Amino acid sequence: MINQRVHLYSSEALGRYGFPEGHPLGEDRQGAFLRAARERGIDKNVNIKAAPPAQRAEIERFHSPSYVERVLRAEVDRVEFLDEGDTPVFPGVYTAASNVVGAALDGLASIMAGACRRTFQPIGGLHHGRRGGAAGFCVFNDLGVVIETLRAVHGVRRVAYVDIDVHHGDGVFYAYEEDADLIFADVHEDGQFLYPGTGHAQESGIGAARGTKLNIPLPPGAGDHSFAEAWERVIAHLRAFEPRFVIFQCGADGIEGDPLAHLRYSTQVHAQAARSLCHLADEFAGGRLMAFGGGGYNRYNLAEAWCNVVRELVNC
Ligand SMILES: [Zn+2]
User: Fold this and answer.
1) N or C terminus: fewer CB in 10 A for the chain?
2) How far is the CA of 18 from the centre of ligand 1 (A)?
3) What is the pLDDT of residues 83-125, one digit of tens each?
4) Which residues, other chains included, contact 174 with Cβ-Cβ below 8 Å and sequence gap of 6+?
């Protein structure tokens, strides 16, 4: 019997994944979400969980050992940035990044053990992280580690990865571009206008994986109507492959008023997407769905959007 409750991963340790000195991904994002969740009583309907950091061997299911070593030594070696300037080293960076992955793995283990059906982790969904390096505020790619762990530990191969963060999920996309069992769908602002510049509509997978990836770039200024049209295509794409597990990166930076991007969604987009992915997970994946906060730099927006997501995970 599966416990129907949702696990919400939130802890002081997780909140410390954030960059200092006015960086858009600051340490205050988790708190902004939690305050809103408590005001709405959402915290009463979920199990709030903390988890230990991921072990190095777990992180290396996705990342190269040399990159993990580089992060581990970054403070000692006085490295300033882990990439070309977006992702600075901060005190405790290795531990903080390992905590993000650890929470994701605990959530995955809980779902696979039947201790819960769905999880939400506000500080997570670090979709720009590459196997061999950091990028775009993302040190370790928790999503990639979950995908590798699903396969290596749980024998689940056909996984849906769905990303509505305003930025293209390039760290996941390129790691699985040739993987026919990673069913990918990503709605984002057109890379002509926004980091990381990728995610063209023609990028649909390579070789045997051709057709398993769906990228939908939207022009600056696009809002709920454009999203709804794109979302119909996303759901049709996912349904065609009958995925056995659903991963949802629900970045809140596509909402109108985000300081880093130019789309104009309302927070209803997040409710709609979460609701229909829950139904999809129920139909094909035994309800198994993990949602991750991803980006979002306007604190009001991220709080509203993520509350909408959790409410749907609880009610659907
Ligand atoms: Zn983003």
Assistant:
1) N
2) 14
3) 988 999 999 999 999 999 999 999 999 999 999 999 999 999 9
4) 130, 198
